[in-house]
# Entry
Amino acid sequence: MPDHHAASLPPPSALDAVIIGAGFSGLYQLHALRDRLGLVVQVLEAGDGVGGTWYWNRYPGARCDSESHSYCYTFSDELMAEWEWSERYPEQPEIMRYLNHVADRFDLRRSIRLGTRVVSARYDVEANLWRLRTEAGEEIAARYLITAVGCLSTANVPRIEGLGEFGGRWVHTGEWPHEGVEFTGKRVGLVGTGSTGIQAAPVIAQTAGHLTVFQRTANYSVPAQNAPLTPEFRQYLRDNLDEIKRTMRETTNGHPFRISERSALATTPEERLALYEAAWAKGGLQFRATFKDLLSNLEANETAASFIKAKIHQIVRDPATAALLADIDHPYAAKRPPIDSDYFETFNRDNVKLVDVRRAPIQRITRTGIETSEADYPLDIIVFATGFDAMTGPLLRIDIRGRDGLSLRDAWSEGPRSHLGLGVPGFPNLFTITGPGSPSVLCNMPVAIEQHVDWITDCIARLRADGLSRIEAKPEAAEDWVAQVNAAAEATLLPQAASSWYLGANVPGKPRVFMPYAGGMAHYRRICEEVAARGYEGFALS
Ligand code: NAP
# Structure
């Protein structure tokens, strides 16, 4: 493999577009602009490999919660036909193999510069160019700037007093060391019980001498019911490819299953229980689709919540631990619902202990471990599964400046404002793939990504065909879209989870604004198509 670090960057103004990031978004955007439109494109990627979130999140148990046959690109039938997933949910190494295969198959690497972190991007109004600077001080310029930086790529390490003095080793799941972490015989503390902590705990417990799970907010989880894909299922995929793709495009969340038409409240308790049991046995995010009103009606939601809480009590043998795990303060799926492989079962192991850090918060980290207001926990390794500065974090850590030096950080000081999550007023020719204000994280990500990339590609093609070179979201369109994002969230139970990262509530000082568009992917797709059909309504073109 050639060294993709060493190649010098193209000279200024030689480029049509620069893309930041070589994950799912960046790879497809590169292919679409370079190979479909014939543009000159450069991708800059901070990591030493392609893969984006899957490059960084190598923690034990890292696996996708979307089913493998839907967690992939659909733009190429040949690619879909030739790639075979091994399991219902792909593990991190398998997704990395897939994305590396895509990079090779479409000859993408020659346009990707690895190990190159962009620190700033400035819009030069006279030249109508974006001028970027890398950490190494190199400069590059292009007409279009497309951020493909992901929604969950800025690790949120909590600022806990004393962390610097810890005598053991600490790691964040989102920046996992490539050489791995040896847990054998070690006393491990795991902070965080979101999707990541829930995936990691069972795997760490298998080798650790002892695992202490520090839980601040208890969480729902449904079994993933992961298994190898059978020959019958593979045949089903081959026979139903078009139907599966259609379902993914037509459903609210971009998954290959449809949400039931039934209301939980219009179903008898016996029938409801049977349906929940069947959904539990089937496993996965599909549990959320058992009834149509689980995310819009609190009473309906409560039927799912109490079913899962009862399961926790059935699985976990120690009643006090079970009670703590089931003491959940938000509606089911108001936070992104985790799915697991033996998470609750893990608390039946002799080497695992659950600690309630809501009642007795972490006070500080000492040289020897974690100190809560109640006790000291001696540890050799601390694993922070404490999530991300989501959606805005990856964009705001780059110093992005638009017209008149306006910084994105200032423009978004009260929360992100953009038109469709795609374009920001004051920042011409900047496109934000799966940016805040788009469905992104509420959707099966590759579906959301492909829709954005296709829209951006069509938009740039249109501009070129019409002899135009500038597009910029209008302030009033962004205001209107922010109102629509808020209204869509308010129509659901999602804002009711007080500590949710959807609201930015997990990062101290971050504005509390519901960031993703909750009106459904299929609806959003139609809105984007209408905006384009009306000559990019809400955008100024010149
Ligand atoms: P998360 O959902 O934000 O969860 C972070 C956890 O850390 C929460 O339990 C939080 O408690 C806790 N925490 C944070 N700071 C803390 C502190 N100072 N003291 C004690 N506890 C603290 O993060 P995540 O689990 O990494 O998941 C983020 C998102 O990534 C998911 O929602 C999902 O979208 C995605 N993800 C996907 C997959 C997949 O598809 N396989 C896997 C993992 C993650 P509070 O709730 O009290 O703040």
